[in-house]
Fold this sequence. Notes:
Blueprint: H1 4-28, H2 32-35, E1 40-46, E2 51-54, H3 59-62, H4 65-75, E3 84-87, E4 99-108, E5 111-121, E6 150-154, E7 157-158, H5 160-168, H6 173-201, H7 203-226, E8 231-239, E9 249-258, E10 261-265, H8 281-295, E11 310-313, H9 329-346, E12 365-372, E13 377-384, H10 413-419, E14 422-430, E15 444-451, E16 455-460, E17 481-486, E18 489-492, E19 496-501, E20 506-510
Helix pairs in contact: 1-6, 6-7, 8-9
Amino acid sequence: MLDPITLEVLKNSVIGAAEEMNAALIRASYSPNIKERRDCSCALFDSKGQMIAQAENIPVHLGAMPFSVAAALKQFSKLEPGDVIVLNDPFAGGAHLPDITFVTPIFVDDELIGFSANRAHHADVGGMRPGSIAGDATEIFQEGLRIPPVKLWRAGQLDRDLWLILLANVRTPQEREGDLRAQYAANEIGRQRLIEIAQRYGKSLVRTFFAEILDYAERRMRAAIAQLAPGIYSAHDFLDDDGINEEPVPIRATVTIEREKITVDFSGSAPQVQGPLNAVFAVTASATYYTLRCLTDPAIPPNAGCYRPIEINAPEGTIVNAKMPAAVVGGNLETSQRIVDVLFRALALAVPEKAIAGCQGTMNSVTFGGVNPRTGEPFTFYETLAGGFGARPDKDGISAIHSHMTNTLNTPVEVLETLYPVRVERYEIREGSGGKGKFRGGDGLIREIRALEPMHFSLLADRRKIPPYGLAGGEPGACGKELLIRPGVETSIKAKGSIQLTPGDRVRISTPGGGGFGSSS
Length: 521
């Protein structure tokens, strides 16, 4: 058994390696979505595919990434130095198609000791709409290029044929090539750092550390659960619609806390839907893990051991565990957020000091694409927009911030206008959109973009009909809304859909505010 000092030194060594991986991925990437918004995540795994350490990145990536590593190991029983496995298939370890995952085995003296892995959101992976976020998709085949676990590098040699297939199926191959190579480089840094750690401390000690850090995280999570009020807690909430049909889509959760274990049951949630709001199990697990870490002790090392005391039941064929060939791009973006809302609401009585009113509950995913007259080449752009954070028991919510399952930054106006034929007309706080209460919800924002050239514009967003909830007598936050503005005419547009823009057209997106907490009277 390792002494506490050695355990802590090695713990921070592997966390530092994951953080260095992520810094390299951001620096080396081409697309603003990764370079500016930092829509990427990195982690290290042991030889069994159990997550050991992660960088502090995107919650929806990190909780789901272990499923990608597991899928890679299932597909390839034999690995050798220099192999790199790539995948994005949501039904084989992925989350949604724009998120491409790299998995690199790490060998020391021909012995497999672990894996480095990263996931990055690509601004286009093909499909029916530029940017590959189609609010009107009804099956995964419309959403882009589906990559099962494949070896893109074999024994250090790039598979040129497979590489050409990948780049031939996207609208912006040069940008994709740059981002893919950045992912490769990030994993190489993780591989090198873990080898250095093993050479410094010895393979045997590192293997012992892997086992003990998982057990340590498990003990701490069980101890944190034991501090919660035992009982059965239930809640439900709704997605506005699925983008195809107008009916609200329910998500229900029952959380059972007993001694040192938590069971989360999503029975009663809607069957999988026609539109792209379906979540695969990896996404549901990721949202569940995130919420329970927030409400227990976020300082617990976020590794595979941390999640051992958590059991999840998500019935197959429902919106929280969809089956092929469901469209799923919005499950990762929108349904993950609503799962978090439901779980926070259910556990508000179990952990009242950490209760939080509803945050904006949507990622407000914006994509547009066309041909850039400056270069004569196609372009695609993707970003998510911030909104209001829910009020807390003792303080107001934060305005214009990404919340819960997204942890990205914004795209600076200067970058947007430099790289794309658009002009940002407004970018401001949406005053008064936070819910009233003893403590007010945070305000959303307003982003208005003018097209300077013809382009296709898509939006995938929620909380346009059903507002973010208030708690303890607090009022709900304002719903979001979007307008197409042409000379003399303002027209509402769908929150899940696509339109063609002509030069001079403006799209104004107003994001939801957070819910209030406590009665203001």
